[in-house]
Amino acid sequence: MGKQAKTAIEPTREENYPEWYQEVIKASDMAEISPVRGCMVIKPWGYALWENISRVLDDMFKATGVKNAYFPLFIPINFLEKEAEHVEGFAKECAVVTHHKLEQDESGRLVPAGKLTEPLIVRPTSETIIGDSFSKWINSYRDLPVLINQWANVVRWEMRTRIFLRTSEFLWQEGHTVHATKEEAEERTQMMLDVYKKMAEEYLAIPVITGEKSESEKFPGAETTTCIEAMMQDRKALQAGTSHFLGQNFAKASDIKFQSDKEIEEYGWTTSWGVSTRLIGGLIMTHGDDNGVILPPRVASSHVVLIPIIRKDKDKQMVMDYTNELAARLRNTAYYGYPIRVEIDDRDIGGAKNWEWIKKGSPLRVEIGPKDIASDSVFVGRRDKEPRDKSAINKDTFVDEVGNMLDEIQNTLFQKALAYREKHTRNIDDKNEFDAFFTPENKERPKIHGGFAVSHWCGDAACEKQIKERLNVTVRCIPYDQENEDGECIECGKASKKRVIFAKAY
Ligand SMILES: [Zn+2]
Q1: Architecture of 17-70+127-287 per CATH?
Q2: Region 65-86: what's the mean pLDDT?
Q3: Is the pLDDT of residue 440 over 80?
Q4: Which residues of 319-331 are buried (b: 16+ CB within 10 A; e: fewer)?
Q5: Of the chain's two ends, which shows fewer C-beta atoms within 10 Å, N or C?
Q6: How far is residue 482's CA from residue 227's CA, in Å, rounded to a whole number?
């Protein structure tokens, strides 16, 4: 006793959080680094998660009237030039296509040839190319609103990459809408932010704070950027989704005009909003532990893994029949609107199987051996409990209860993440306390610091900049959920009406 049980993932979160993150992804077999610089390979266990997230989101979008469409991967350079702030924001990370064919040189090596007269950008986001289509689709107020979403990949040439969190190519959805009035566009911006909050909290079990970005953190070209922000287990913030009110900026840049009901020509009001495969990184960092990933049931790649235990050949048929019958019954059971997703792991590798599924984060593991079958029961392990905490449950009871068990896990994960965030969120009104909060307690240890500081800020970008330079801490958002109150800016002491969330960020 006394000695801690060895964990499946080394280093542990406490020992080295960034390395733990890399190791936990490797151990879960969700994704790997590709030979292409800054790009990832998403493996089936990770891709299934993305499919489930996409499916839920897609249903939620469509319920608000949004329709899917698809636009080109390439954007002519002059399209990007149309919106000044937008250019500035994205120019530094654009992949540019300059040639359209390959030729062999004298030594037989392939070299680019056929230089393009106008280079093409690989989309970093699609406001400008979609805006061009919208300008042709929209003539009259009768054509509005236009509510479009695209499921796609985008490319941003990142210098420092990390799987799921920041990769040069990533998968996402981008919604783009046009409205006749400012109010309607603002309403849509909030509506989609609410969809993201629901997705994060009810499906990913990640508690989020909703609010607005400061001027310096908003989307290039937007009037306002709203966001959902989550706390990871190293107490850093992750921006998990954004919804932008673009005013008439992009409508003017792309010439999106319509005849109003009073026959006056007006510019449209646009919005855009997106979430990406980054959500998977957020999910891993919110729920993972020192034994691996923990998947929230409502989006889990698989809900239940059945592990037949076969020690003697003569038992094989019986155990497999029992397992297959149970799988069929489970697959006929619905959980949160979709059939229960079941894996059967019948590989002949003994006890290692159980640990593999713990590392992969399957919410429920079910062992089925001859002894269990004799008593018509199954041996169930829950991923939110200790790996050795397993219990025998009557098979029929298990089928009846599986949905409740999954929901219990889902709720446990959310409550645990919420408690963690609350524990590491503090209202701070004293500058010394603020600085101490963001200074690592022990320089030898990984960069563990306080968490979220909820402090007054005067709104001046200069204060924001000073704090960033001194502590590498930024304004993550100006939360909606607060009353105006009189306070003093944590940096300069000037009067302030609102608190903001200060944190280190991914
Ligand atoms: Zn200030």
Answers
A1: 2-Layer Sandwich (3.30)
A2: 90
A3: no
A4: beebbeebbebbe
A5: N
A6: 16
Q: 492 CA to middle of ligand 1, Å?
A: 4
Of the candidates 207, 192, 209, 197, which has an alpha carbon nearest to the alpha carbon of residue 475?
Answer: 209
Tokens of 31: 């994704």
Q: How far is the CA of 470 from the centre of ligand 1 (A)?
A: 14
Token output for 36: 């292409």
Domain 304-420 fold: Rossmann fold (3.40.50)
pLDDT at 3: 44
**Distance between Cα 456 and ligand 1 center (Å):** 8
Residue 155, strand partner residues:
169
Average pLDDT, the chain: 94
CA distances from 79 to 93, 128, 136, 158 (A): 16, 6, 15, 22
**332 has a pLDDT exceeding 50:** yes
What is the CA(461)–ligand 1 centre distance, in A? 8
3-state DSSP assignment of residue 64: coil
Residue ranges per domain, the chain? 17-70+127-287, 304-420, 425-503
Residues 6+ apart with CB under 8 A from 263: none
Ligand 1 center to 59 CA (angstroms):
43
Tokens of 430: 């004293």
The pLDDT tens digits of the residues spanning 41-55 come to 999 999 999 999 999
CATH topology for 425-503? Answer: Translation Initiation Factor IF3 (3.30.110)
What is the 480 CA–ligand 1 centroid distance (Å)? Answer: 20
The Cα–Cα gap between 75 and 443 comes to 46
Q: Closest Cα to residue 196, out of 177, 175, 182? A: 175
- Two tokens at 40? 């990832």
Bridge-partner residues for 271, per DSSP?
Answer: 177, 245
CA 282 to chain centre: 5
